[in-house]
Every structure is written in structure tokens, then in C-alpha cells.
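Take a protein:
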Amino acid sequence: MPKVKYVLLDCDNTLCLSEHLAFEACTDLTNEIMEKQGIPDRYTVKQLLEDFVGHNFRGMIMGLQKKHNFTMDPKEVDAYVERELGAVTAKLSEKCTPCPGVPEELEKIKQAGYPMSVVSTSAKPRVVASIKKVGIDHYFPDEHVYSAATSLNPPSSKPDPAIYFHACKELGVKPEECVTVEDSKSGATAAMRAGIPLIGYVGVYGIEEGEEKMREMAKVLTEQCKAKVIMYDWKEFQDCLKKVEA
């Protein structure tokens, strides 16, 4: 393909090591919902990550209702989403760190003349808290931070590609003229459905879960989500971009 016109970037566990922190904050609320519904099952942070990584809390609640066969009033869902956002944003503002190599690589991308945007499934205040804490917010002006939970009406969640279509429309580019970086199956599926060339970032799995999980996700993102190339370390981004543009 010709030179990429826009680099679109997922946030959680792609730019920032935020996913585990966020799931720590929302596990208690998830178990509160289960208790109120009279369901004896309880989630640990690890179990919640396994079932719902890449989903925002609204999407997670939808998934819980489907999996455990119960229904919540939409206003109650809204209230829980609001509570979760406050808890997660506070934790990320305090503890979030960048994925290794991200600050240095973003500077290289900027110097190479590629415009960048964040396209996340998470609520915008949470995303902004993360990128500010790790010191990369100057690469992403507010209008270039897109959130499936906040920027869309009605709100959505990846793997729905709606947030990618919205971002491309706002940025004035076609999906196929961009490249995106995603770490999760849900995010990568959204990119695939939007027709955006995908770089699958799996280095975070090696950091948090080990080499076996990293290899497993490389296979998932390649075979199921049609990633153009797999990136194991952010230092590889420039080479990955060249392969996409070749």
C-alpha cells in the first residue's frame, strides 16, 4: 500500500500498561452485580481479564448478562458504568505506566511525519488519565482521542468497528489508508471489520503472562484477525510499518 496517512493506536495494553489496573478497579463492582442478581459465582481479576479483555465496562456488563442469563435496567447499567469510570480513572492517574518503548517510538513516529490518534474502546476520561500519567498526552490533542464508550451515541465497544469508522470520518481518511496497533482479539477484530491494516502487538502478553500466552496471541491475531504483521516490542514498529506499506 502507499504511505500510511494516519497511525491509529489502541490505548490499554498497547500504549499504556493499564488493563490490569483497570480490571483491579472493576472486579469489586462486577462481583457486586453478581451478588445483587443472586448468582453465586465470583470473579478474580485474572478471570475477568480472561473473559473480557478489550471490552469496556458497559460491554462487560452486557457480556455478564448474556453469560449468566440475567437482565439489568439500562439506568442501573449507566450508574455502574459511572462508578467504574471514577474508580478506574483514579487508579490509572496514580499508577499507570507506559508499555516499554512507547514514549521513544511515538517521538520517532512524529519525527517521521505520521499523524497519530488514539482509538480506544474505553471511556475518554480513563484514556486521557492514562496518557497524561505516562507523559505522552502531548502527542494526542483532545480532539484526536476517540472512545467507543464516550465519542459514540449510543456508546459501543470493540469488536464493533463503529469507533474506527467514526475516527476515520472525523480525521478525513479512509480506513484502508491508515494503520492501527491493537493487542486484544476484540480490538483487532474491530480493526479487521473496519478494513484497517493491523499491526498486532503481543509484547504485553510476554510482560504480564509469559511467552506461551504471547505466542498464542500472535497466532490468534494473525489467523483470526488477519494482522499484517506481529510486533513483539515497540522498537520493531518502524520495521512493521515498512512491511505494511510495502
Notes: The chain has eleven helices and six strands. The chain has a mean pLDDT of 96. Residues 200 and 230 are 5 Å apart (CA to CA).
